[in-house]
């Protein structure tokens, strides 16, 4: 499967999370500890917003993230207050740029760790349920991108959580019609330029790992001698497939069948009930 992270806070260089931590996302591309595979080398991507929000920029590649010099250069030069990054381990679809996450539509970004079991058998029905106006925007062949466009079809822009719940329900209903058991495994990162959502859900109730960073003020109080933590602004949150380091108390697991929302001045957890 895959590994990903999402950041929301004061602007930082992408390299602060992609490269510098002890167990950075680039380290995870070769040495994942909690993923289904140790190596995630089937492409990568990062999407980031400017300080004024708006449409995000994308940089994606089909090679392993650990060896891409352009990614290294970009990460050291680009600062953003909101960005999503992904390293891919294909579940069967081609290694090509259009299959690399994040996926973008307007000012929305979407990335996914997991799969739809039996996707090949259901692909036609799932894809035909996408709004005809959105269908031309599907550029690749992954289940993840179809999930994104189904969520858009079901109202992602107006009601993000309800739209993802409807998407999951539709996938699971279609799977039942095809005799596919436990069809969906997912952690999702979704952003619109100001807000960040994270979802953790699976049909079997045993989802892939997902963590959120502890409240910045609480961390500063816990480690007053840590200069790096003292520089973290209030409201900063990082969502990760697996922790970026071993600092005790720095990472909290996102509960099974739940979602998190991070927006300026607010962070919350809620139940996710398709």
TrEMBL record:
Domain of life: Bacteria
SUPFAM superfamilies, A to Z: N-terminal nucleophile aminohydrolases (Ntn hydrolases)
Keywords assigned: Glutamine amidotransferase
Pfam family, one: GATase_4
Cross-referenced InterPro entries: EgtC-like, Gamma-glu_amide_hydrolase, GATase_2_dom, Ntn_hydrolases_N
The Glutamine amidotransferase type-2 domain, residue ranges: 2-273
Name this protein carries in UniProt: Class II glutamine amidotransferase
Species in which this protein is naturally found: Virgisporangium aliadipatigenens
């Amino acid at each position: 499967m895959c590994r990903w992270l999402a950041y929301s806070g004061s602007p930082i260089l992408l390299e602060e999370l992609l490269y510098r931590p002890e167990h950075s996302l680039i380290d995870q591309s070769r040495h994942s500890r909690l993923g289904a595979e140790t190596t995630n080398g089937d492409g990568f991507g990062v999407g980031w917003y400017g300080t004024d929000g708006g449409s995000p920029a994308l940089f994606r590649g089909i090679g392993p993230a650990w060896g891409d010099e352009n990614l290294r250069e970009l990460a050291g030069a680009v600062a953003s207050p909101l960005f999503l990054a992904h390293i891919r381990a294909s579940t069967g679809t081609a290694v090509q740029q259009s299959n690399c996450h994040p996926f973008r539509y307007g000012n929305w970004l979407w990335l996914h760790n997991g799969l739809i079991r039996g996707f090949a058998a259901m692909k036609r029905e799932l894809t035909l349920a996408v709004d005809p106006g959105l269908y031309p925007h599907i550029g690749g062949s992954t289940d993840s991108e179809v999930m994104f466009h189904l969520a858009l079809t079901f109202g992602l822009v107006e009601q993000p959580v309800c739209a993802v719940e409807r998407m999951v329900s539709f996938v699971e209903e279609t799977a039942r019609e095809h005799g596919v058991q436990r069809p969906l495994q997912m952690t999702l990162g979704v952003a619109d330029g100001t807000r960040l959502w994270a979802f953790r859900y699976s049909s079997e109730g045993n989802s892939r790992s997902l963590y959120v960073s502890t409240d910045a003020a609480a961390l500063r109080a816990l480690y007053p001698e840590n200069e790096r933590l003292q520089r973290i602004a209030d409201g900063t949150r990082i969502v990760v497939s697996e922790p970026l380091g071993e600092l005790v108390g720095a990472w909290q697991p996102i509960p099974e069948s739940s979602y998190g929302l991070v927006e300026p001045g607010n962070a919350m957890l809620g139940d996710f009930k398709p």
